[in-house]
Amino acid sequence: MRSLPEADPGLPDIRSPLRYLWWNARRQARSLLAGIGFATLWWLVQALVPAVLGKGIDAVTAKDTGALLTWASILLGLGLLQAFTGIMRHRMAVFNWLSAAYRTVQVTARQAARLGATLPKKVSTGEVVSVGNSDIAHIGSSMDILLRGTGSVVAIVAVTVILLTTSVPLGLLVLFGVPLMAVAVSPLLRPLHRRQKHQRELTGELSTRAADIVAGLRVLRGIGGEQVFAARYGEESQRVRHAGVGVARVESLLEGAQILLPGLLIAVVTGVGATFAVGGEISTGDLVALYGYAAFLIGPLRTLTEAADKLTKGHVAARRVIRILSIEPEVTGGAETSGGGVLRDSYSGVTLQPGTLTAVAAGAPEEAAAIADRLGRYASGDVTFGAVELATLPMDEIRSRILVAGNDARLFTGRLRNELDVRDAASDEEVRAALHTACAEDIVEALPDGLDALVSEAGREFSGGQQQRLRLARALLTDPEVLILVEPTSAVDAHSEARIAERLAKARAGRTTMICTTSPLVLDRADHVIYVEDGRVLAEGTHRHLLAAAPRYAATVTREED
Predict the structure, then answer these.
(1) Is the dihedral of CA 35, 37, 43, 46 positive or negative?
(2) What sections of the protein cross the membrane (predicted)?
């Protein structure tokens, strides 16, 4: 059994939707060719069954027992071969569907991780959800349909050749009738795809609204807006439903046309064949075989229509996927290396000395957060790390050496231990030490399964203060060279805040740490305090020194105490 997905999906060709689909096809060329081979043989076996039945009937008419046994044996062999090829065709179809879909998941997930905070700025949540929910399925289906679609073309050609050898008029009737059927159905595809696109856009908008409501549910309840937003969600969901009904109307017409039009062709071919049989131009067995061919052609004809539909959907889906894959991150890295040292933001003047605990207090919290983003290379800025520009270091190196932990970080679903020890490298003692520093032991002790307890989506079973302490423990367990914490104690009580400040100073002793805060309890434990106003360093020193020497600093931090 082969495992999916691949370890390395490779670099996709995003120059156009067709090139992306072709890249997918080339990545799984062997399985595609094998599937096409099985599908073609599967169709051909079915195409030969009417001919064998006709020969058997002619043997009965001629009372030739030997010939009847021969053709019956051939029919049995065709049945066994059809069963085998059908199983293998389906197996390869599923494999190809999964390969293309999971490969798309891999490259989009890799791109999402690469883009980081850039992605939600460029693409809405609903758009990303729609890519994950529907577009990967359409891309998988576009690979799957190549098997049956190619085989159906070969089967139609084979039946046409057989009919031409039996009766030239009948063969020509099928030869020209099949393209006419396809042309007759094609006008329905464009409105179908237009309505499907509209429905998908509405679904994406609805998903975005749902994500916003869930994220802000606590706030909405606090201001009494829960029912208002629920009503708006209901209105938008009804628009999605109406759009779905519109899609279903066209799909029902298409399904009906796929049955009606081939049925008309069957009726015409069978009627003409019956006329030839009455006139003695073809035998009774040929007439039965003729009807079998006409009935068989329904399958390949419907498959061709299905192929046109799925390939078009795959093309549209690929366009949306490459839109995400073509986005470039707002910040990029280089190829230099740094031995570490002083981390300095030239714009603000904030300087982090190696091995010290530095606190940054700002008149406006967003100013300190902006400095943290620049120091962590989440935003562009003139920042140096030792003797090297931070922008010239590879992003992987920056992320492994400098960690910015803010309150917008999420807790994910899974076991609590795995959620805290994201690198899966910490011992039990190290996990306990991090929980102790973050004053989070009581959270774990209250859980029936302790560290093995399952965390629900976004850690919603924990209060805001509990989530903040768990996020702090997770940041400490990563043990980066430089740790930057943004308001790590804003949601905890004063008693816990004092203990965290004391323990954090001890836990990070000898390593570079920066805390963005205006809490006097934390500021008093810092080795060095920097006061920022209007984005620039206004004063620096110890907390007690600044309280006496910098009135604006004192006004900012004492407001916290009132």
Answers:
(1) negative
(2) 32-53, 65-84, 145-164, 259-282, 288-305
For CATH 1.20.1560.10, the residue range(s) in the chain are 17-325
CATH architecture for residues 343-561: 3-Layer(aba) Sandwich (3.40)
Q: Specify the 3-state DSSP secondary structure of 495.
A: helix
Q: Is the peptide bond before 5 cis (omega within 30 degrees of 0)?
A: yes
- Relative to beta strand 528-533, strand 536-541 is antiparallel
| Residue 284 CA from chain centroid, whole number | 57
Taking only the tens of pLDDT, the chain with its 562 residues reads 455 656 778 889 999 999 999 999 999 999 999 999 999 999 999 888 888 888 888 888 888 888 889 988 998 999 999 999 999 999 999 999 999 998 998 998 888 888 877 777 777 766 776 777 788 888 999 999 988 999 988 888 888 888 778 777 877 777 677 677 767 766 766 777 677 777 767 776 777 677 666 665 555 455 555 677 677 778 888 888 888 888 788 778 877 777 777 778 777 877 887 787 777 777 777 777 777 777 787 788 778 878 888 888 888 889 889 988 998 887 888 888 888 899 999 999 999 999 999 999 998 889 999 999 999 998 889 999 998 999 999 988 998 899 999 887 777 778 888 888 877 778 888 989 999 999 999 888 888 888 888 887 777 778 888 888 999 999 999 989 999 999 998 888 888 899 999 999 999 999 999 999 999 999 999 999 999 999 999 999 999 999 999 999 999 998 644 4
**Residue holding tokens 């804003």?**
490
What CATH number matches the domain at 17-325, 1.20.1560.10, 3.40.50.1360, 1.20.58.1560, 3.30.365.10?
1.20.1560.10
SS3 state at 96 = helix
Q: Give the pairing of strands 388-389 and 383-385.
A: antiparallel
Every domain of the chain with CATH number 3.40.50.300 lies at 343-561
DSSP 8-state secondary structure symbol assigned to residue 133? I
